[in-house]
Structure formats: C-alpha cells, structure tokens
C-alpha cells in the first residue's frame, strides 16, 4: 500500500515515515510540505492513501482535501497535532471526503513514535475499505416477517460515509419548518469523534442532533445519531440497541444493520436516504425498506463526494428517486407526507 504524506513539519513527516516503514505492506510513495504541493503530488502520482495535516502554509488540509477529491480522488486520512482541539476543521475535511482523523505520532528520544499504533489501526481499517474487504460485505438476510406494532408515527433514516457530514447537515437544514418527525442517522465515523460530530451537525443544520443511547426510542422531533463503534439497530420493542454483531461487517456502525432492522420492526411509514460514501453499505438495507413501502432516495453522482454507496443502491433498484443533495430534503419530506396519508402499508 503506497502512502503519500502531506505535512509542513519536517519532524512530523519523519515520524509518519517511520510509522509507515515499520509495518509490512506499507511504503511511503512521496512527501509534500504543504497542501498545494500535496494536490500536485496526488495528480502526478496517485497513492493508495494520503496522510493529510490540517494547518499548513499556502494551502491548508481542508482546501487540499477538497481539491484532491475534486481533481484526483484519493482516500485521505487527516493526521494532525490535536484532533480533539480542531473538531470544526476535522469535520470540514471529512465533509470534503476525508475518511477519518487521528493525532500525529510524536517522535521519542529512543527513536520510536508515540501514537504510531493508533495511526496503523486507522490505516488498516481504510485498507479494508479500499480493497481488502470483499466486494460485497456480509449480506444481511431479507426480512420477510411484517413489522410488529400498530404505531403510525413516521420515521426518517439517513445513512452516509465519505463526505457525509456536509450532506447530512444539508438535509437536516433543508427539512420543513416545524419538522416533528423522528430521525435516525448513521455516519461512518470513529467513536472518539462522534460526540463532536453531533455538535457539528447541530451547529451547521440548525437542528439539535444528539447521540442515541442504548434503549432510546425514536420520537417525533428528535434527531438521533449512532454513537458507538457497535452497530445501531431497532429491536422488536421499538428501542435502539447497540451490538458488536455482525463482527465481520466492513463498516462500523453499519447502515445496512440499521436499515434492515427498521424494515423489520418499524410499523409506521418512513423515508430513507443513502448518501455519499465509499463501498456499498446500506444498499441492501435500502432495498429492504423500499420493499416495505418506504420512500427511498439515493444521492446522485454529481453531488456525491464518492458515488459508491448510492450507486450500489441504484444498481440494486433500491432507490425510488435519485436526486442531487439540494433536493433530497424536499423529496424525503414529500415521501413522509405521502406515507402518513396512506391508509395502510
């Protein structure tokens, strides 16, 4: 796996080089000392992964990520001095297509690197996403039993990955005034960043987004975000639960796991959207929801940072509508209203 390093600090570049060199199967393809040089390097010699700093002269990591994903798409991992201290910039970079973020390893007097293990774990996870995971992740069986219960409350479900924070915020912001529909969201993100993501989504959408706790019920007017590296699912009692299973799922938390559980257990009408992201997580779950009579939407190619997950949904026939990001909120709201008016399912 060839890795490019974009960082203006010579010491940081050396720390990253040592960590990469310490692992079998990894090699440094090149290094760049600022974001502008990083863009040019990627265009000239595209690596398997870019380790991107945030604060650099001439062009910072956010703009460099945006340019790379627009001009020469390539997996990007944000590596910066303090992820927790730069939450807003981290999520800006993720909105433009960065997959994840981790603190920069620190060179020690002995020659080792503190934090190198965390970086390697992130790299291994991304390696699965870009080719070491099977083309079709473990399939979740079609659920033929009808949903239990009699509630006719509607539900909105969103699933997203690469570039998802901006997409989710845009949809929440675009929902009608007075929106009082229960909403659940799965965004592929490391558990240590998810609390910051809830705050970021709240700030950028104007709607309060809170982390879904074990046992929470989706309720009108509440927006709940999956909050752990376990998979969030709805159980037969209508409560949200977290589980490590399926352990071999390529993505955590899995959109497919949530969508399939909603198809089985949510008795009312609903609308769901599968948004920008790498891979195909959520496509089969969206199909299960469509078969249950939900309104289903896939983000279109032009507005997606990576048209992987939505494309998989389109190929399966899971999406009733394929729409650009700016239209999705309206399509979902229409689908919810139409489902609520229907006499039955």
What does this structure look like?
- There is one protein chain.
- The protein is of the alpha/beta class.
- The chain folds into two domains: 2-132, Rossmann fold, CATH 3.40.50.2300; 155-341, Methylesterase CheB, C-terminal domain (Rossmann fold), CATH 3.40.50.
- It is 37% helix and 19% strand.
- The protein has helices spanning 10-21, 35-44, 61-71, 87-96, 116-132, 164-174, 194-205, 255-265, 283-291, 309-316, 325-341; strands at residues 2-6, 27-32, 49-52, 76-80, 100-103, 106-107, 113-114, 155-160, 182-187, 209-211, 223-225, 231-234, 240-243, 270-274, 295-299, 321-323.
- It has a seven-stranded parallel β-sheet with strand order 10-11-9-8-14-15-16, sandwiched between helices. The protein has a five-stranded parallel β-sheet with strand order 2-1-3-4-5, with helices on both faces. Strands 6-7 form a two-stranded antiparallel ribbon.
- The longest helix is centred in the middle third of the chain and has 17 residues, at 116-132.
- Mean pLDDT is 88; it is low at 132-146.
What's the topology here?
Layout: E1 2-6, H1 10-21, E2 27-32, H2 35-44, E3 49-52, H3 61-71, E4 76-80, H4 87-96, E5 100-103, E6 106-107, E7 113-114, H5 116-132, E8 155-160, H6 164-174, E9 182-187, H7 194-205, E10 209-211, E11 223-225, E12 231-234, E13 240-243, H8 255-265, E14 270-274, H9 283-291, E15 295-299, H10 309-316, E16 321-323, H11 325-341
Parallel strand pairs: 1-2, 1-3, 3-4, 4-5, 8-9, 8-14, 9-11, 10-11, 14-15, 15-16
Antiparallel strand pairs: 6-7, 12-13
Helix pairs in contact: 1-5, 2-3, 3-4, 4-6, 6-7, 6-11, 8-9, 9-10
